[in-house]
Amino acid sequence: MNKKLLALFMCGITAAAAFTACGKDIDPLSGNSGADSSSNIPMENVEIANFTAPQNGDTIIEMTIRDYGTVKFRLFPEYAEMGVDNFIKLAESGYYDGLTFHRVIKDFMIQGGDPNGNGTGGASTWGGEFDGGTNPHLIHVSGALAYANSGSTATNGSQFYIVTGNQNITDDFFTNYESRGYSFTDNQKTMYKQIGGTPFLDGNYTVFGQVIDGLDIVYKIQYAATDANDKPLLEDVIIESVKVSQYNGEEIKWYISDYDYDDPADAVPVNFTAPEEGDDIVVMDIKDYGTVKFRLFPEYAPKGVENFTELAKSGYYDGLTFHRIISDFMIQGGDPNGNGTGGESAWGDSFDGGTYYNLIHAAGAVSYANSGSTATNGSQFFIVTGEVFNEEGYESLAASGYSVRDAAKEIYSTAGGSPHLDGGYTVFGQVIDGLDIVFEIQNVDTDTSSKPIDDVIINSVKIEKYDGSDLKWYISDYNNNDISDDSDETTEQTSEDNTETDETSSESEEAKPTDSAE
Hints:
Layout: H1 15-20, E1 59-65, E2 69-75, H2 81-92, E3 101-105, E4 109-112, E5 144-147, E6 160-163, H3 171-178, H4 186-195, E7 207-213, H5 215-221, E8 239-246, E9 280-286, E10 290-296, H6 302-313, E11 322-326, E12 330-333, E13 365-368, E14 381-384, H7 391-399, H8 406-412, E15 427-433, H9 435-441, E16 458-465, H10 488-497
Antiparallel strand pairs: 1-2, 1-8, 2-7, 3-4, 4-6, 5-6, 5-7, 9-10, 9-16, 10-15, 11-12, 12-14, 13-14, 13-15
């Protein structure tokens, strides 16, 4: 089955989409200069030193992270003397104690060391900035410790990051980057293909350490729910202390395979977990169609749930319409203007609902539309219908830069959905009854802006208590309903009929739920 390519795009793309879906590289920036450190410097084919063991008595770092545990680092004063000296002196002064990891990006890195907690602050032990340089013996493999900067290693301060990185680097990865002007040595390529990491950062950032214990902790942290600025959303990730210690010959665990580690990426998404009796659910009565019910996820999307429930209780949604409907994709509503240009949150203006990696855009998912990032959430929401995917569909997504983890594939291959939206929108609910109504609505006649010819009106939205009644998660739970397969003819027709020229971006070829409110 071929994934439809619709010329219906949002007014922008989220940071996550820009980094992972559109082929752009992420930089661990300190400050908001927007500097681009993308000039990968060709290196001599030297031996990689990241995984050389410390000697007894060597200085190491022990970083204790609240609610997670302790991460230990080997340091490399022989290759990054100033970087090591700076970090040790700051740690000994207690500088890092109580600070947070303010920027967390899955499959990339976790970043901390800013006293402002937002990426705008921090200074070296000497005051201001310092130049830690780079060394070809130290690269950005998984577990590497390096300094963030705002354009060059001469702007190093106190901010640092720990690499998690891409764990599936192949020869095709290097071919792609080399075609863009990057260069990598044979030793780099060998190491990255074995360990994973972020090769495109080499030559631009000062690597000065490597995790020797606690890499599983770093990996767990990278799965924290985050807002549009990649800041942990549900609770701060706090560095309780950073201590300077000595290596005493204890076991070294360089690689994630050295740990008894349950990768959250292997966990089944939580969309289809049942609510408890007495939990709040949403009951949406749609004129001429019937009632749609969906459960909420306050434990994963607290601001998103609070916003929707407060708006619903105020009667905000009563009488509004589903103003944008695209078959095999979604139905979108919640705009008082009825055209995608209006709406605001329960607090006025917009809010950041963030994303949680284990809530996905499966069929029946309820999510907020936005105009470029989750920080622009308002009142507009959409309910996913989507498509059932097979390997051809996943290959099509991969060619566009989207990756879908195996546990999510199991759902998208059975329930269907819109996986290209994951990571860019705040999912906060899942339909538990009335999905057949949503699927019926998606097939109404629409104009060239995807607006229904006849209004689809929301009579009321109420918050009620779940009473333990039967759950109907999947369209197959309903009589005489199924997600239709796309034929080439259908794909072509939809692509022509749903073109929205004033919301077109060359960044993507996938449909996006757009909130054009200003």
